[in-house]
Amino acid sequence: MNGVTALGYVTNSEEETEVLGARLAEQLGPGAVVAFTGDLGAGKTAFTRGLARGLGIPDRVTSPTFTIVNEYEGGRLPLFHFDMYRLASSDELFDIGWEDYLARGGVCAVEWSENVSDALEGGAVRVEIRRGAAEDQRIIQIEGVEL
Q1: Is 47:141 a contact under the CB 8 Å cutoff?
Q2: 59-82 as b/e, with b when 16 or more CB fall inside 10 Å?
Q3: What values do phi and psi take at 86, rounded to 5?
Q4: DSSP 105
Q5: What pLDDT score was predicted for residue 103?
Q6: What is the per-residue burial (b if ≥16 Cβ within 10 Å, else e) of 86-95?
């Protein structure tokens, strides 16, 4: 990693993006919400793989695009990985049991969080991932927690 820039962090590989996710996981407690924004293929799932690693979860992390949510346990905290791409409103999020997931004391990683922004707690950690100049480079802005 090149470190911190005025825009946030710069990673130059999928592995570096995962390492940054693992660093963030170390700072998260029960009930934390990580709200991702970024284009398709920007690296949100790679970052979430890092969150899982940082939480000590041994499972393979995959995108929950078609299942809406994947649950991972076996680490310091459970990880609930949401993909809101197919949801039209926050009402649909509540229909799948959002409040129950929050109450379970894990970390909720929410891809496409802008689709349900009115349902996310004010204390959510915001992670914006954008492509950089090189093919594998990512510009990552993290708000709401210090690394």
Answers
A1: no
A2: eebeebeeebbbebeebbbbbbbb
A3: -90, 0
A4: T
A5: 92
A6: ebeebebbee
Residue written as token pair 């695009």: 65
- How many angstroms separate the CA atoms of 15 and 109, rounded? 18
Ramachandran category for residue 100: left, alpha or beta (phi over 0 → left; psi -120 to 50 → alpha): alpha
Give the per-residue pLDDT at 5: 43
DSSP three-state, residue 86: coil
Record the tokens describing residue 80, joined without a space.
Answer: 């609930």
Strands (E), 30-119: 33-37, 69-72, 79-83, 107-111
What is the side-by-side order of every strand in the sheet holding 33-37? 3-5, 8-11, 138-143, 125-131, 33-37, 107-111, 79-83, 69-72
> CA-CA distance, 127 to 143, in Å (whole number)?
7
Q: Along the chain (147 residues), what's the average pLDDT of each consecutive run of 10 residues?
A: 60 96 96 93 94 95 87 96 86 88 94 87 88 94 86
CATH class of 3-138: alpha beta
- The two tokens of residue 55 are 């939480």
